[in-house]
Design goal:
This protein is an alpha/beta fold. It is 45% helix and 11% strand. The structure holds adenosine-5'-triphosphate and magnesium ion.
Amino acid sequence: MQWTPPLDPRQYDLLPLLARQNRTADWLNTDDGDPYGLPNVARWSVHQAAKIVPFRFRSATAQRPEIHTWIDNLATEAIAEQQRRKAPVASINRGPSLLLLGPTGVGKTHEAYGAVRELAITGIVARWTVVTAADLYAQLQPRHGIDSEAEFQRYSKASILLVDDLGAGGKISEFTEGINFRLINHRYENQLPTLITSNVLPKDLSARLGDRVTSRLVEMCQRVPITGHDRRRGEAA
Ligand SMILES: Nc1ncnc2c1ncn2[C@@H]1O[C@H](COP(=O)(O)OP(=O)(O)OP(=O)(O)O)[C@@H](O)[C@H]1O
Ligand SMILES: [Mg+2]
């Protein structure tokens, strides 16, 4: 683990995230020379998270209690596993998944990136892979010179994966159905933590994603309905 110099928590809008974990900016910038200590891992993780969080969501803070609980549970499991293995740092490798469901513009992606940022400041290593479902299908289209199976495994085997907008877009094709099944099935069988957002109504999940994908999602994920108005259109919409 690389030694990471102190950082200004205001620059990354970390103060609300720290407060939720009953931690302070002083804790984050603890200079105890221990590269494996929670504060150094947290500083390192803040930089890693900033690389994958899109600019629009750079200050996102998750509001939903289910997200905080999910993060706390993942962190607890990671610490227990670290102690069993006597590993120098705790890392997220296995655990439950979360499915954020709600209509367009209610803040699902905001909540998801809020989770990425919040996990960063726990001091637990979370090696996220993030992708929108549409980009995933585009990247996995068989192309000359691209090993799409290796590319697929980058997602299926990711230690923690965010799939944004599963089930959005046009009619599902045999190709996208196959990707969805292989991806979800692998993550289901190996209990790999996955954060999924979707604007498909709960009653339409089976029709949209197929019974076999939906059945696995129901077992592996806690479903979190996100309600409200389309924030992009403002309060009046
Ligand atoms: N809790 C929040 N506080 C402030 N802004 C928010 C919050 N949640 C969402 N927003 C803003 O509202 C807009 C829509 O949010 P977001 O993109 O997360 O919606 P979504 O549910 O993912 O929509 P879609 O289904 O179209 O992908 C964005 O500009 C986002 O930054
Ligand atoms: Mg979204």
